[in-house]
Amino acid sequence: PIPAGNFMMGGSASMGNPSDESPDHQVEIDAFWMAEMEVTWNLYNLFLAREIDQLGSKGASGNEVSRDVNAVSGATVPYVDMTFGMGAMGYPAINMTQLAASKFCEWLSAITGNFYRLPTEAEWEYASRAGSTTPYYYGTDPNMLSKYAWFQKNSNNKYQKVAQKLPNAWGLYDMLGNLMEWTTDHYEPNRYASIESKNPMVAPTQGVYPKVLRGGS
To answer: What are the tens digits of pLDDT across the range 185-203?
Structure first.
């Protein structure tokens, strides 16, 4: 569970932040739930194969969603190894479009009865910061980054199994490094400069791309 609160989203261009992440602005966030780690191939492959759909349609355990999972659009079975040989079981799922990630959430909702979705960009940053106001969610020392994240110097140029590093203060793993993660928002280069409300609406979809990615890679 991620508690409700407010935070300063983005940063100042004068401090080195990219122009599309500035200026910083205050945002209020309602409470929500977030997965503690990146979705792994263990789970995502069940969505690709769809072999358990009939099991789920006999009665989902939750009560927020009532839908026949067979009606959820499936992903096209890939012709190549989507892991690029970097590992599957226990490793985060990669190489899906934002639409496929959204359909995965729709499928997971239908098969469990509980509602799942991608986070908004504001929710993602709020959850990643976990109440911190420092450059990194653990503090200010870049030499400590290897304790919390996989990045160029320690990853051997590949992604790593989830939850191998320390989590942030709210128990979320790999919010820095490992993979970039999809959000619901449409990408607009000048969006931060145009936000006037503490409760910004999700940037409306204007097409399949571009969408906002957050995190490392």
So the answer is: 999 888 888 877 676 667 6
